[in-house]
Amino acid sequence: MKKIISLLMAIILLTFCFGLVSCGGGQKIIVNGENLAEYTVVIPKDCDKITEYAAENFVFLVNEVLGITLTTVTDEASAVKYEILIGETNREESKTDTELKDGEYLLFTSGTKIVMKGYGIYVGGACGDFVNKHIKPMLEDGKSKIKINSLSGEPAPHKFTFADKATSVIFMIGDGMGNYHVEMGERNGIGMNQFIGRSFPINKVQCKTASLSVLNGDEGCTDSAAAATALSTGYKTLNEHIGIDLNGNTLLNVRELARSKGAKTAVLTTDVLTGATPSGYLCHHTSRYDTEILQNQIDTIISNNEIDYIKGSVEDNLTVETKAALRTVSSGDSFFVMIEEAYIDKYSHDHNHEGVIHAMKRFNDAATYATEYVLCHPDVALIITADHETGALVRNLGLDFGYAFSGYNHTNYTVPVFAMGTGTEVLNKKPLTIPILRNS
Ligand SMILES: [Zn+2]
Question: Residue 153 belongs to what domain range?
Answer without folding.
Answer: 28-159
